[in-house]
Design goal:
The chain has helices at 60-63, 114-126, 179-187, 195-210; strands at residues 13-21, 29-39, 42-52, 71-80, 83-93, 98-102, 104-107, 128-141, 150-161, 172-178. It has 211 residues and is an alpha+beta fold. The protein has 2 domains: 13-62, no CATH class; 71-210, Nucleoside Triphosphate Pyrophosphohydrolase, CATH 3.90.79. The two termini are 32 Å apart.
């Protein structure tokens, strides 16, 4: 398949020269990347600032690993006859200072597969046992302007609900909502949705409307 973009014609050439870790925190750190940028034979130094959950050696600009996601976003639903309901989460997000509506999600732990992570996180956050896992996006950068984090998106059918296993400061509630209710929520500015959950809901509405 022919690339519709003419590679490097009139564009810049980028070479990563240095990575400097600016902070030392347990979960998220700030880095300065120094690039040598070339255009038409002229070189300039360009510092770029980013945050990452990884250590300096594992940063994606160095590893060039564009296959394994860092986290899995899990759209959960149940189907009773022709009626579809989605399991929405409501979580306090300290960086936002407010409760945000979304879907279950979590970081991949060690050598877990996406499916294993989805099953574990659905159980921990929502108490949900799941099946029929469908991978929608296996690898997708989430905030390329400031981070190297990449997520996968799956959807799965809820088989049963049981006890959650939340961490001490995880403030997460979950509830099944019908698609008709979802349509109303999306029109109401009172409900603040995370982008990933919002896009999945629009996808689900379009998909099941067609069916």
């Amino acid at each position: 398949m022919k690339d519709e973009f003419e590679e490097n014609k009139g564009l810049l050439t980028w070479k990563l020269e240095d990575v400097k870790q600016e902070t030392l925190h347990p979960f998220l750190n700030f880095y300065t990347l120094t690039y040598d940028v070339t255009k038409q034979g002229q070189h300039k130094t360009y510092p770029y600032y980013m945050v990452s959950r990884k250590d300096a050696k594992g940063l994606r600009p160095l590893s060039q690993n564009f296959q394994r996601p860092d986290a899995v976003i899990i759209g959960l639903y149940q189907k009773n006859g022709n009626e579809i309901s989605v399991l929405l989460t409501k979580q306090f997000r300290p960086a936002f200072g407010h409760y945000v509506y979304s879907v279950a999600a979590g970081l991949i732990d060690g050598d877990e597969t996406m499916e294993e992570c989805a099953r574990r996180e659905a159980k921990e956050e929502c108490g949900a046992t799941i099946d029929d896992i469908e991978v929608l996006t296996p690898f997708s950068p989430s905030a390329t302007g400031m981070s190297d984090e990449a997520n996968a998106m799956v959807m799965a059918r809820v088989v049963s609900l049981g006890k959650k296993d939340l961490e001490e400061f995880e403030d997460i509630s979950s509830e099944f909502v019908s698609l008709s209710q979802v349509k109303l929520m999306l029109k109401d500015p009172h409900y603040i949705f995370a982008l990933n959950g919002l896009l999945w809901l629009h996808y689900l509405l379009a998909r099941f409307d067609k069916e």
